Amino acid sequence: MSAAGSSRRSLLWGVLLVSLLTLAPLVALAWDALFGGALQGVSLGSEGRLQVGNTLALVAGEGLLGGVVGTAIGWLTALCSFPGRRLLRIAQLLPMAFPAYLQAASLIDWGSRAGWRIHGLGWAIALLALANYTYVFYLSHETFASSGRRLLEASRCLGVGPWRSFGRVALPLALPAIGAGVALSAMEVVNELGAVRLLGVPSLSAGILDRWQAEGDAPGAALLALVALAIVALLVSGERLLRRRSRRWNLSVGSPQGPLWHLQGWRAALAMVITALPPLLAVLIPCLWVSSGWESLRQQDGTELAALTLRSLVLALAATGVTLAAALLLAVVRRWTPRPLVQQLSVIAGLGYAVPGSVLALGLLILGGAIGLGPLLLLLWGYGDRFMAVAKQGLDAAFERMPPSIDEAAISLGCNWRGVLRRVHLPLQRGPLLVGGLLVFVDVVKELPLTLSLRPFDFDTLAVRVFQYASDERVGAAMTPALLIMVLGLLASAALIPSLDRR
Amino acid sequence: MIANKRAALPLLGTLVLSLTAPATLAQEVRVYSGRHYSSDNAIYERFTKATGIKVRLLESNDSAIVERLRNEGRNSSADVLILVDAAKLAHATELGLFQPIGNAELMRDVPLSLRDPKGRWFGLTRRVRAFVVNPKLVNPGSLRTYADLANPALKGKLCLRNRNSVYNQSLVADQLILRGQPATRSWIRGMIANLADPVYTSDTVLARDVARGKCGVGVVNSYYVARMLSGQNGAADKALAARVRIVYPNPAHVNVSGAGVTRHATNRTQAIQLIEYLTSPTAAEGFAQGSFEYPLKGFGNNPILKRFGPFTPDGLSAAQLGAKAKAASQLMADNGWQ
């Protein structure tokens, strides 16, 4: 592989640059915290301990609930047959379209109109699990459907029933994938801001922002951010470890065989209820809200809504392009250069995902002020930093499944690295690239704190408008832009269907 | 090819001109605002009609735009900064984000307690931290001052917003100044002991729960209830709001939203013109009316606000409130206000 090595050096520099760019805002923050403010006695305090405790409780609760729900649905839709299985499998993508802060805001408002108080840790865990269980479902479904299949068939031939083969064969095989899914969703939980704040749960992400902005205590905020980063670093390394254990090369993507277990009677009904419930809830919450507040949904300025939608779209498309290009670079170099340094750089470049958007925004503002970068460029930088992991996730996994012998064959046939990339990797990775791109697109459309803090003048997006109306407690006016965000999210999730259906 | 290029040049020239001309020739003023009321836009439009100066807007929450302006420093393109809380205004002044404008008209239109004494920012509207009372559960006549909220008779009947609310932080700062630390501490403890339910994250949700009788009394900015009464939130909210009473404590803690010219403003003249316009009696009335706030002087003409009756401000200045903001937030945290 080292024959084409010299021209690949430039790629290494590219990786270094991307990693530096992703780290720069965090370094700027640390710098500002240490040298910008007067250093005082820094301590977590009782409040900080409460915030850490709550975040850990959220991570544990969401991980357990989301893990169980995601795994159950992954198993049922991958290996059991019941009426509506294909449709219900696709429906699992629905909850992704609805950002947790919107779900929380609409549930709270609807509940309050109906006379119920939606508040506290329990609701936060439930809503976050609803918004994030898809990660576990997606990864466990993939494993159940592909790799464990032959072993399951063997165990079935040996007369082991569905429950026991789930517990003794499928679950152990899928544990790494489930763990990886739980770790990913836990990162979302650590940096969730809107939903937990609305539900009145004091968490780390809110604490960081409050200490920094409201109390002007930069060192205290940096300390909390360090705790958050430590939690995330644990999750990331856990996910890496689990993924390495589940790594196997496999090119046979489509496996058109039917399911293994045919459910009938009450079992089939139960399977339908379990798989239908989460997507149904995800759609029901905003629907209930809209129906209860219908009359306050006043006529909105159509041209303004169109402008908001257009800005959301343009930003999301640009951010998707930037992020995908950088993620592809990282994934390819990681494949070709198995040096530990490159592997670590690749992990570092994905860390932005775990940093609360509002914290990242602060770091970028400090940098932008120092080097005089325009707000739009800063915003794109922020999106790229924040969502690199989302794009990289699928690409890395796909590259890991592709045997290195393919590259070796291409090179021995006289291809240089550009040729391998263009003629072998890109055609083979079109699916993961598309999926990664769509996920980034949806995330950018839903994204709030970065957009809110970094956008230029007269550049409101749908999410920003929703936030403004909602923070002014005029929930009725927030409905139309909120619905448009959901529609964009739904369209993008619909585009994911083929990738799921293929399995 | 060459002919084509020559023909294209002037065309390109006009295109470039037409793209850049409005930005360089037209007058404009760039505003960072912590207010999010669509009724504000109507006032800005009227200003543009009257003066020909275009208003370019960036709305966000107070803390976020202050942080942005601070980091942008000299490079910032903002000319005017509007914030919605006295303590935040004082904080921004302390950070040196405003520049003083000695302007006789502004000094005359804005009362001293509602502006910076050195003319770095000027109040635009007033909002009052009021009691929202369910008369079936609590006698509105029994509530005269904020101190009454700690009365053990209200045990299990009081509902409060969270500590995160800047309006609550300023209220506690207000009490710290007027009553001193020991009294304020026991007041907070008394209120926390009276809570009917965990603290709320929204004034509107709180007001609804008072109307339903889950709480007997709550503390909110009166404009949230005014908005419910106006029917803007729908008929159900209007009916709920009709069940509650707004009671203004005497004296009342009055908060302001205010505007100042930023330190590095490029359009200083236009910025001053905008602030003059917003504080002038006619426009200020409109600015306040659309959001059910009170104008700088008097109580406005809004029939809903008239129903709430007049109030007596306690007269504390924003600088005073700002100086106590941090101590207030700490005191709340130390005494169980989540």
Q: Which oligomeric form is depicted? A: heterodimer
Give the DSSP E fraction of chain A (strand runs of 2 or more residues). under 5%
Q: How would the global form of chain B be characterised?
A: globular
Poorly predicted segments of chain B:
1-25
Largest sheet of chain A: 2 strands, parallel
N-to-C SSE string of chain B, H for helix and E for strand: HEHEHEHHEEHHHEHHEEHHHHH
Model regions low in confidence, pLDDT < 50 over at least 5 residues of chain A: 249-254
Summarize the biggest pleated sheet of chain B: 8 strands, mixed
User: Pair with the most extensive interface?
Assistant: A-B, 51 and 49 residues
Describe the overall structure.
The complex is a heterodimer of chains A (503) and B (338). Chain A has 503 residues and is mainly α. Helix content of chain A is 78%, strand content 1%. A two-stranded parallel sheet of chain A has the order 1-2. The radius of gyration of chain A is 23 Å and the shape is globular. The relative contact order of chain A is 0.14. Residues 249-254 of chain A have low confidence and may be disordered. Chain B is an alpha/beta fold and 338 residues long. Chain B has helices at residues 2-25, 38-51, 62-72, 86-94, 104-109, 166-179, 181-194, 203-212, 222-230, 235-241, 268-279, 281-289, 303-308, 318-323, 325-334, and strands at 28-33, 54-59, 80-83, 122-133, 158-159, 217-221, 245-247, 254-261. In chain B, strands 1, 2, 3, 4, 5, 6, 7 and 8 form an eight-stranded mixed β-sheet that branches. In chain B, helix 2 links the parallel strand 1 and strand 2 (54-59). In chain B, helix 6 packs across helix 7 and helix 9 crosses helix 10. The longest helix of chain B has 24 residues, at 2-25. Chain B is globular and about 60 Å long. The N and C termini of chain B lie far apart (73 Å). Residues 1-25 of chain B have low confidence and may be disordered. At the A-B interface, helix 4, helix 9, helix 14, helix 19 and helix 20 of A face strand 2, helix 3, helix 8, helix 10 and helix 15 of B.
